[in-house]
Design a protein that fits this description.
Layout lengths: L10 E4 L4 H5 L7 H8 L4 E2 L6 E10 L2 E12 L5 E6 L1
Antiparallel strand pairs: 1-3, 2-3, 3-4, 4-5
C-alpha cells in the first residue's frame, strides 16, 4: 500500500522585528513616527483601532521555529502609551 506523507514547506509570514527595530520604539511616539521607523503594522485592532499588532512567525516543516507578537496601544491623540512583547 502506498502511504501519503505530507510535505511541509518553510513559511515566514508577517513583520519580523529585530532587537534594533524594537529599541527604536518609545512611549510617547506617534503612529506616524512608529510607522516611519519600523513600517506599518500587520494588523490594526478591529474593535479598537488604537491597538497595533506586529506579528511574525516562522515555521520550518511542521515545527514552529519563531513566533513574535508586538502589541502597541495608543491614546486618543495617537500617542503610544503601552508596549507589550510576546
Amino acid at each position: 500500500m502506498l502511504q501519503c506523507i505530507p510535505q511541509y514547506s518553510d513559511i515566514k509570514q508577517g513583520n519580523y522585528l529585530n532587537e534594533y527595530d524594537i529599541e527604536k520604539i518609545r512611549i510617547g511616539m506617534t503612529k506616524l513616527e512608529i510607522s516611519s521607523n519600523i513600517g506599518t503594522p500587520t494588523l490594526e485592532g478591529f474593535l479598537n483601532p488604537k491597538i497595533w499588532y506586529y506579528i511574525f512567525y516562522y515555521r520550518s516543516g511542521n515545527k514552529m521555529v519563531e513566533h513574535q507578537i508586538l502589541t502597541l496601544k495608543f491614546d486618543a491623540h495617537d500617542v503610544l502609551v503601552t508596549i507589550n512583547r510576546r
